[in-house]
Fold:
Amino acid sequence: MDSGIVLDWVKMPLVEPFRISNGSVSLKDAIVVSYQRDGVTGYGEASPMAGSFYSSVRVLPEKLERYGFRRAEFR
Structure:
């Protein structure tokens, strides 16, 4: 049975702050992705940085749904 995708939005503390010329980051937004089917669960993660192709974790559910994952939602 396919139970779909679940997205858990987490804030990950960095071991050391990430510093560049315009500032530093100590916490990183990330999405833990889980998918369950036929009693097997798979996990993955997504953690885009501002300025990258996907500039925010907020766009991830929309992107997943575009590829056919109909029940993608944050938990």
